[in-house]
Structures are given as structure tokens and as C-alpha cells.
């Protein structure tokens, strides 16, 4: 059965060794969205599976043209699989979800309907999470609170893959590391509207979890990058320059004290410990200011060459719609 050129919904599934769960999952996705009356496609990104996942996906795609498959040459990770799926998706709304049956396809219509309220992202919240507490739930809760604190975007469950996005929001995103979890923070920073909705969460029935504590650590490291990008991505000189000015001020104070000691008490200038301190901070301040200027030029060159505005266009009047709205 052929789908329309622009479906209402693109469901994106990152897949890694989920052969046992895929037939049931795809069947439930089709049943749910057919009953909801929305046109859809399912983008399955096989992330170098070593089981029969790719063979299952090929069979499903042969039986239903709405199931589309991307297969990586090797395992690149969940973020890369989601990034590839987002770029292949043609729907007006993009819904990523896990392929292990822990996310429930029945929640998709409810998340999509929330977008109709004028939202740009609706993030799933696994309020009743069915995972081991100490190895998965507790580290996730700590990470969620840190992310909310640093970004200023308060969500209970950044780690839930099940979300609904307006497609136009994702068109210009490039995902690295564990940053797919932090997209809501980027959207909020760009002026988008973000909300969360409780979703069902089921115990894993097939295979083994791909989650490790190392992913939480990587997420926290990515958070440092996100904090910089959220606050200073378009004005890096503001971030670097303030430390440069602080270093120059410390250098001037140290140099002034060394000169004062020479003039008032006749102490040697060049052997005074404050003299090399003044030189160090003075040079560091100048270097930081020049680094800030170079970063500023690089950022402006990036936005000009990519033609990517540092803001989110919500709607247009008597103009073409924002790219990706269909």
C-alpha cells in the first residue's frame, strides 16, 4: 500500500538487535495510526544489528511500503540512528520511539494532538517507569534534574525517546553524542513551546537493554556543550571575553601593586613575584580576547554560509511556510 508524498506522521525507530520485538511493534504502530485516521510512514534505522533485525525489517517493508528502512554499515549509536531517521522523514510531525516495546504506540495520537495546541515539542514522561531502580531509574532522575537546572527547561524525563516534534523544528539540527535527549532544551532556547505528557512504560520483554551508565556520563558531558550553546552560541565573545577582561584586570592590579611597592618602598620591580603574575594575566587576557574575536568571526561565518538563522520562525503571513512544514 503506497502512502502519500507528505504523510501526517513519521515514526522514527532506531533499531539495534530488536528482531523479536519488531513484528509486534510495527503491527501495533500500524493499527494505532490507521485507527486514528492519520497518514504515516515508519522510518526504521538499523544501527548495525547483529541479529535478524535487518531481515525482519526487509520483510516488513516488502509487505507495507509505509515501512522504510535505513541500514548502517556498523553500529554508530542511537543518536546517529535518530539523526538519519529525522533527515529521511517526510511527515509534518516526527515521532521517535524505542523499538523494544517499552514505549507504547497507543500514546502516539495523544502526543500528536498536544502539538495541535500550538506546541512545538511534546516530550514523553515515563512517570511509572518499569526499569531497575538503582542502575537505570535513579541515574536517570539525577541526570534529568541536572539538565533541567543547567538548561532552565524543566522536564521530568529527558531520556524518554518517545516524543512528538513539528518537523520544521528538526530540519536544521545536527545530533552528536547523546544530544538527541537535549533537543527540547534547544527548542525552548530558540523560542519554541515545549510541554511533556505522561506516557506508558512497559517492562522489557525481549533482548537486553542497551542502556549503560556510560550513556549518563556522556549526557552530562554533552550538557557542558549545551550550556555554552544555549547561552553563547551566537555571541561567543561574550563568554570568552568576560574571562579575558577579568584576566586583564587581575594583571593590571598585580602590575600596579608591583609598581607601587617599587615607588613607595623601593623594592625591586623585576624580582617582585607580582611582576610575572601581572605579565601572565595580561598576556592571558589579550589571548582570550583574540580567541573570542576569532570565535565570533567563525560563528558569523557559519551562520552566513549555512544560511541558518539563530531563531525559530513559528509562522508566516503572505510568505512561504517555514521549511519543513509541508
Quick gist of this model?
The chain has ten helices and seven strands. The protein has helices at residues 22-36, 53-63, 78-88, 108-115, 133-151, 167-170, 183-189, 213-232, 236-265, 274-306; strands at 9-15, 40-46, 67-71, 93-96, 121-125, 163-166, 194-198.
Features:
326 residues; alpha/beta; Spore Coat Polysaccharide Biosynthesis Protein SpsA, Chain A; 2 domains; seven-stranded mixed sheet; 10 helices; 48% helix
Explain what this protein looks like in three dimensions.
The protein is an alpha/beta fold and 326 residues long. It folds into two domains: 9-231, Spore Coat Polysaccharide Biosynthesis Protein SpsA, Chain A; 236-306. It contains ten helices and seven strands. The chain has helices at 22-36, 53-63, 78-88, 108-115, 133-151, 167-170, 183-189, 213-232, 236-265, 274-306, and strands at residues 9-15, 40-46, 67-71, 93-96, 121-125, 163-166, 194-198. A seven-stranded mixed β-sheet has the order 3-2-1-4-6-5-7, with helices on both faces. Helix 2 (53-63) links the parallel strand 2 (40-46) and strand 3. Helix 5 (133-151) runs parallel beside helix 8 (213-232) and helix 9 (236-265) packs antiparallel against helix 10 (274-306). The longest helix has 33 residues, at 274-306. The chain starts with 8 loop residues before the first strand and ends in a 20-residue tail after the last helix. 38% of the residues are buried. Residues 315-319 have low confidence and may be disordered.
Amino acid at each position: 500500500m503506497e502512502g502519500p508524498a507528505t504523510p501526517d506522521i513519521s515514526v522514527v525507530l532506531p533499531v539495534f538487535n530488536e528482531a523479536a520485538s519488531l513484528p509486534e511493534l510495527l503491527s501495533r504502530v500500524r493499527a494505532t495510526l490507521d485507527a486514528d485516521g492519520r497518514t504515516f510512514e515508519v522510518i526504521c534505522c538499523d544501527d548495525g544489528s547483529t541479529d535478524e533485525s535487518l531481515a525482519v525489517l526487509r520483510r516488513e517493508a516488502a509487505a507495507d511500503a509505509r515501512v522504510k528502512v535505513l541500514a548502517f554499515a556498523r553500529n554508530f549509536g542511537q543518536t546517529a540512528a535518530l539523526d538519519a531517521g529525522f533527515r529521511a522523514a517526510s511527515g509534518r510531525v516526527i515521532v521517535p520511539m524505542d523499538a523494544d516495546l517499552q514505549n507504547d504506540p497507543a500514546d502516539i495520537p495523544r502526543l500528536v494532538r498536544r502539538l495541535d495546541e500550538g506546541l512545538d515539542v511534546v516530550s514523553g514522561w515515563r512517570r511509572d517507569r518499569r526499569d531497575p531502580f538503582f542502575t537505570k531509574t535513579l541515574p536517570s532522575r539525577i541526570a534529568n534534574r541536572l539538565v533541567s537546572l543547567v538548561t532552565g527547561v524543566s522536564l521530568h524525563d529527558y531520556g524518554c525517546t518517545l516524543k512528538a516534534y513539528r518537523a520544521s523544528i528538526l530540519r536544521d539540527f545536527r545530533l552528536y553524542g547523546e544530544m538527541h535527549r537535549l533537543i527540547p532544551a534547544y527548542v525552548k532556547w530558540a523560542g519554541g513551546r515545549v510541554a511533556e505528557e505522561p506516557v506508558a512504560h512497559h517492562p522489557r520483554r525481549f533482548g537486553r537493554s542497551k542502556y549503560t551508565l556510560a550513556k549518563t556520563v556522556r549526557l552530562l558531558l554533552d550538557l557542558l556543550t549545551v550550556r555554552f550553546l544555549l547561552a553563547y552560541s551566537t555571541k561567543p565573545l561574550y563568554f570568552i571575553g568576560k574571562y579575558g577582561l577579568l584576566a586583564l584586570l587581575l594583571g593590571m592590579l598585580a602590575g600596579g601593586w608591583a609598581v607601587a611597592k617599587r615607588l613607595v618602598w623601593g623594592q625591586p620591580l623585576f624580582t617582585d613575584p607580582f611582576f610575572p603574575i601581572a605579565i601572565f594575566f595580561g598576556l592571558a587576557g589579550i589571548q582570550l580576547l583574540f580567541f573570542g574575536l576569532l570565535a565570533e568571526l567563525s560563528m558569523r561565518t557559519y551562520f552566513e554560509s549555512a544560511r541558518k538563522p539563530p531563531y525559530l520562525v513559528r509562522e508566516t503571513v503572505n510568505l512561504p511556510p517555514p521549511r519543513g512544514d509541508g
